[in-house]
Amino acid sequence: MENFNQKKKSDKITMTLQDLLKHYTFGDDYEYIVYYIDLDGKKKPFGVGKGIQDKNILMQKYHNVLKGQYYICKKYDIHKYNVAIIDIDEDVTIDEVYEKYDFLKNTLIVPGNSKGFHIWVFNDFLRIQQK
């Protein structure tokens, strides 16, 4: 597996988020969280900041507060990596994005959850020093 701070270059690099996470090494910088959508359509998350890395422990802790359909996901801590994620929440093609923002052509692109794209930009300039 490649280190997360290394990137392959090409004109268009698109992959699913799962493929992206398998392709790069994140180590243990994640936690499981769970959320449900309330009647107003807002996400109600549980487990954020708790560092739970076992789905069973997560569900034991929060099963009684979840209402209706719920979603379990991994939340990654990317703050120590030299990456920024640009979230485009418009119904556009990637070619339209490239036409407007030419500098994004050599980036990793993940389709958005419902529309648009999540564009992963790698650059040493983006590295945040932890104090």
Features:
three-stranded antiparallel β-sheet, 9 strands, 17% helix, 131 residues, disordered N terminus, alpha/beta
Q: How are the secondary structure elements laid out?
A:
Blueprint: E1 2-3, E2 13-14, H1 17-23, E3 24-25, E4 30-37, E5 43-46, H2 55-62, E6 70-76, E7 83-88, H3 94-100, E8 108-111, E9 117-122
Parallel strand pairs: 1-3, 2-8
Antiparallel strand pairs: 4-5, 4-6, 7-9, 8-9
| Regions with little confidence, pLDDT below 50 for 5+ residues | 1-12
Please give the count of helices. 3
N- to C-terminal distance:
28 Å
Question: Using only CA atoms, what is the Rg?
Answer: 17 Å
Structural class estimated from helices and strands = alpha/beta
The main sheet orders its strands as 2-8-9-7
Oligomer: single chain
Query: What string, H for helix and E for strand, traces the elements in order?
Result: EEHEEEHEEHEE
Largest sheet: 4 strands, mixed
For the secondary structure, the number of strands is 9
β content, as a range?
Answer: 25-35%
Shape verdict: globular
Specify the helix fraction band: 10-25%
Averaged pLDDT = 77
Write a concise synopsis of the structure shown.
The chain is of the alpha/beta class and 131 residues long.
Commentary on this structure:
The protein is an alpha/beta fold. The chain has a four-stranded mixed beta sheet with strand order 2-8-9-7, with no helix packed on it. Strands 5-4-6 form a three-stranded antiparallel beta sheet, covered by helices on one side. A two-stranded parallel ribbon has the order 1-3. The protein is globular and about 50 Å long. The chain starts with a strand and ends in a 9-residue tail after the last strand. The longest helix is centred in the middle third of the chain and has 8 residues, at 55-62. The protein has helices at residues 17-23, 55-62, 94-100; strands at 2-3, 13-14, 24-25, 30-37, 43-46, 70-76, 83-88, 108-111, 117-122. The protein has three helices and nine strands. The chain is 17% helix and 31% strand.
